[in-house]
Write a structure and sequence with these properties.
This protein has 318 residues and is mainly alpha-helical. 70% of the residues lie in helices and 0% in strands. The protein is globular, with a radius of gyration of 21 Å.
């Protein structure tokens, strides 16, 4: 029986993998500039500079598109909290530190371009948007491991979380593009989604390497994250209302979470084909299998039944 490795030992062992993954990321990522994705000729002054303040009829976006864009933007706004979480649980030395800085800089573009687009096109109320940003950033991000005993969270839980979360965010951005009905928004959101996919690949690679290094510790972290997963914007104003709208209209729902996020990453790691787990790892894998089975056979069908009834009621009212 091998002993558990400390977080520091894991980081040291995985640094060569981090360096290789960073080099691959830098070779694949394409530089882009937020200002190239914003229709500036649609912009005009607000009342403080002699123009007109926002009115609802100025927006061409549907309620679903508004909910999705605001949710995605406020999620990206909380970057300082995510940076702190990653910096504390990874390292600021060597390849780790370079990645943390690079990832943060790339993520910051997303909030810049989304806000510029929404303000210039008057897609949503900029005052309400700023009020929500202030509330959300003041509260910060609470990771799903916050309830674990002291000392039990750390790198493995963080890297497992972002392996799924980055893919979930990519799916959300990509599907938001579909409901906007605007080719400019579509181009912008597809660009953001490409970034999220590359970020996911980096984290998925590192978590896969952690599974090879410390299989029992890693699968325990993965199971905890999957069973307690929540999107990083969960604490923002109107998150429940907006999340329901997004789920009802195919931006991000429970089936997508299972089939487009959880299952592809789990297959990539071959979690149910590995034979290197000890007793503790096998127990975690059994818990994970039971959770996924319940999600597929009980939770997803229940959600879809409720969604279909709600959509039918809405159609009847119209």
């Amino acid at each position: 029986m091998t002993r558990d490795l400390t977080q520091r030992e894991i980081l040291v062992e995985l640094e060569p993998t981090a360096e290789t993954a960073l080099d691959r990321h830098l070779s694949m990522v394409k530089e882009w500039h937020p200002h190239d994705y914003v229709p500036w000729d649609e912009g005009r002054n607000f009342a403080a500079l002699g123009g007109n303040d926002w009115e609802p009829e100025q927006s061409t976006l549907s309620e679903v598109a508004k909910a999705a864009l605001v949710t995605n933007l406020l999620t990206e706004d909380n970057l300082p909290s995510y940076h702190r979480e990653i910096a504390e649980n990874f390292s600021q030395d060597g390849a780790w530190g370079t990645w943390v800085g690079r990832w943060t800089a790339e993520e910051n573009r997303h909030s810049v371009v989304l806000r510029d687009y929404l303000v210039v096109t008057r897609g949503v109320d900029p005052v309400a948007l700023e009020d929500a940003r202030m509330i959300h950033m003041t509260h910060g991000f609470t990771p799903p491991t916050s309830r674990l005993p002291d000392g039990e969270a750390g790198f493995l839980y963080s890297v497992a979380y972002v392996s799924f979360q980055e893919l979930a965010t990519r799916v959300s951005h990509r599907n938001t593009a579909k409901v906007c009905g605007d080719p400019i928004a579509d181009r912008m959101l597809q660009r953001v989604a490409l970034d999220e996919n590359l970020h996911m690949i980096f984290y998925r690679t590192l978590c896969g390497a952690a599974l090879d290094l410390v299989p029992d510790q890693a699968i325990t972290a993965i199971d905890t994250i999957v069973e307690n997963f929540r999107m990083p914007g969960a604490g923002m104003p109107n998150f429940r209302r907006n999340g329901v709208l997004m789920a009802k209209h195919g931006v991000y729902d429970l089936r997508q979470h299972l089939e487009e996020v959880l299952q592809p990453v789990i297959r990539q790691w071959d979690l149910f084909g590995r034979n290197d787990f000890g007793p503790r790892g096998e127990q975690a894998r059994e818990r994970l299998a039971a959770y996924l089975d319940n999600l597929e056979k009980v939770q997803v069908p229940r959600f879809e039944e409720q969604r279909d009834r709600a959509l039918a009621r809405e159609a009847a009212r119209r």
